[in-house]
Write a structure and sequence with these properties.
By secondary structure, the chain is an alpha/beta fold. It has 5 helices and 7 strands.
């Protein structure tokens, strides 16, 4: 649990920018909840379309007394917010291209999208619409205690 989920989620910290994060397809709250705990000065929004998961997330936020977290139960494609997010992050939501298509409208100008992946996602990187988002880096990551290949893909608006 610690290596595979918590430390893996926290491996994205060096790639977070700005003061607002949207965790797309948050599910059990990974990576959003660990990020909110270690980065209390950043506003984190967890979005998941499943009511059962959103209910769990609200309970976790309340139990942990996290004042910097909002939970949204809605499909990310339909979610609208006047203030865009500085960083959008996802851990197990979809392909990188689907992530940019469904959530890209929520990224602020100068913001970035960050996807946590396993093996080097060459095919996914090649499938990104370079007219909308540019893959600026693919970082290999070593997670302590985890014997698995991990990569972090960083994208910015084209």
């Amino acid at each position: 649990m610690v290596s595979a989920h918590l430390l893996d989620s926290l491996s994205v910290v060096p790639y977070i920018a700005g003061k607002s994060i949207l965790d797309v397809g948050s599910g059990a709250g990974l990576p959003g909840l660990p990020l909110a705990i270690v980065m209390p000065g950043i506003q984190v929004t967890l979005i998941d379309c499943r009511k059962k998961k959103s209910h769990f997330l609200r309970h976790a936020v309340s139990s942990l007394a996290l004042e910097n977290v909002d939970v949204v139960c809605q499909r990310v494609e339909q979610y609208q917010k006047p203030e865009k997010f500085d960083t959008l992050v996802t851990r197990a939501f979809s392909t990188i291209a689907a992530f940019t298509e469904s959530a890209g409208h929520l990224c602020a100008g100068g913001g970035k999208l960050v996807a946590l992946k396993g093996r080097y996602p060459g095919e996914e990187v090649a499938a990104v619409d370079q007219q909308r988002f540019e893959v600026t880096a693919v970082h290999p990551v070593e997670v302590p205690g985890l014997d698995a290949e991990r990569h972090i893909v960083v994208l910015t608006r084209a």
